[in-house]
Amino acid sequence: MEGTLNMIGMGLAGTGAAIGIGLIFAAYVNGVARQPEAQRVLQPIALLGFALAEAVFILAIVFAFVL
């Protein structure tokens, strides 16, 4: 039973990471559409947010298999 609960937690973490990544890039596209000259400033910020959101999911995978 505990393996099933770990995988449910991993699925919830994956869903949260996917929603977070979608919101990050939606805000990036919205910002570039409003001010195209700000793309050089917004792109590193969007990629950093993507990396942090993906790191949360990778940690969830590790914890799901370790616990």
TrEMBL record:
Organism: Garicola koreensis
Transmembrane segments: 12-33, 45-66
InterPro entries per record: ATP_synth_F0_csu (IPR000454), ATP_synth_F0_csu_DDCD_BS (IPR020537), ATP_synth_F0_csu_sf (IPR038662), ATPase_proteolipid_c-like_dom (IPR002379), F/V-ATP_Csub_sf (IPR035921)
Main location: membrane
Gene expressing this chain: atpE
Organism superkingdom: Bacteria
One GO CC term on file: plasma membrane
Classification via PROSITE patterns: ATPASE_C
Keywords: ATP synthesis, Cell membrane, CF(0), Hydrogen ion transport, Ion transport, Lipid-binding, Membrane, Transmembrane, Transmembrane helix, Transport
Role, per record: Key component of the F(0) channel; it plays a direct role in translocation across the membrane. A homomeric c-ring of between 10-14 subunits forms the central stalk rotor element with the F(1) delta and epsilon subunits. F(1)F(0) ATP synthase produces ATP from ADP in the presence of a proton or sodium gradient. F-type ATPases consist of two structural domains, F(1) containing the extramembraneous catalytic core and F(0) containing the membrane proton channel, linked together by a central stalk and a peripheral stalk. During catalysis, ATP synthesis in the catalytic domain of F(1) is coupled via a rotary mechanism of the central stalk subunits to proton translocation.
Positions marked as site (Reversibly protonated during proton transport): E54
Pfam families in the record: ATP-synt_C
The V-ATPase proteolipid subunit C-like domain, residue ranges: 8-67
Name assigned to this protein: ATP synthase subunit c
GO-annotated molecular function: lipid binding; proton-transporting ATP synthase activity, rotational mechanism
Subcellular location as annotated: Cell membrane; Membrane
Membrane topology type: Multi-pass membrane protein
Entry similarity comment: Belongs to the ATPase C chain family.
